[in-house]
Design a protein that fits this description.
Elements lengths: L6 H10 L4 E5 L8 H15 L2 E6 L3 H18 L6 E5 L2 H4 L2 H14 L2 E4 L10 H7 L3 E3 L16 H11 L5 H11 L22 E4 L4 H6 L4 E6 L2 E5 H5 L4
Parallel strand pairs: 1-2, 2-3, 3-4, 4-5
Antiparallel strand pairs: 6-7, 7-8
Helix pairs in contact: 1-2, 2-3, 3-5, 7-8
Organism: Brachybacterium huguangmaarense
Protein name: Amidohydrolase family protein
Length: 244
Amino acid sequence: MLRRPGVLELLEQAAAQGAEHIGGLDPMLIDHDPVGQLDGLFSIVAEHGCGLDLHLHEPGELGASEFDLILDRVERDGVGPGRVNIAHGFAMVEVDPARRRDLLQRMAGLGVTMTTVAPLRMAQLPLHEFDDAGVRFGFGTDGIRDLWGPYGDGDVLSIAWQYGRAGGVVRDEDLTRVVEIATRDGAAFVTEETHDLAPGARADIVLVDAENPMDALVRRVPRSLVVAGGRVFRHSELEQHPWE
């Protein structure tokens, strides 16, 4: 943001032209100036009312201090709930439980959300602690296929499977909760519209041949039908007979 001249100006232009979110990255490890980067980003948020997605890979107490700085600015500027998201946030699982509890309680009070790509090399973010604190938690796909993780296919349910397996999630109710995060609850990160099997909701649905939500997650079953906005994008019969 700061070490490359012109980056903040480009983000400012994007927000002025209607970008719904801008992003930041490791204010200390990348820019070596956490105060400067965050002040620059939050000034754009304050001026244009856009959202902010911050990717934090910084470890331990260094990363936790970045959380504090972000939350300070959300509180100072009165940024509304759901407009600031912290991605990755490895420090959250590396600090002691009391420190994590305090951070989560503060995030919940300010409406700051968090997402993960469930990297296999890292400890997973604590499912129950997020729910207990009231912090909205979701899954993302990051770069899908890049140097960080070349195994991705863009399927959020695959990220959910990876999160559950790497995090030792085994109880039926917890597996079901992971599926909810990957499906119904994930919509809130991109829209304020109702997204569920409910009257008036957008017609987005994926049908799978599974016994129940837990089975759909752990067995990674094929998609039988994919509908987006009422339009069929994938159907098992069409795949078998594509030219008929």
